[in-house]
Amino acid sequence: MEQLALGEVQKRFANIVWANAPIPSGELVKLCEKELGWKKPTTYTVLRKLCSRGLFENVHGVVQTRSSQATFCGKQSERFIDDTFNGSLLAFLTAFIARRNLSDEEADEIIRLLEAHKRNGK
Fold it and tell me: Distance between CA atoms of 57 and 106, rounded to whole angstroms?
């Protein structure tokens, strides 16, 4: 998966695939027509492009994921932190928290995640 960035339309398409995979390509065409207003050639063009980037694969007419949505979004987040905050997660969190009012539940969940990370080394 060399190039991680997706355009808005590609994101919408990828979300359809992630939500429905594995999915026969014919069904994907119908979903894209309904959800995106696309014709068959457009669906296959975008599918081919995202398959060539390693996100999905079309094997015997069944579209499957090669990278989960969580993995893809995680890699995008890492790239954003690398590019914007010189790789510093602490700098990112400091900037994020300064601009957003976290609820007590969100703050507690972040603390739980960090404590679990310390305990498990993950």
Answer: 36
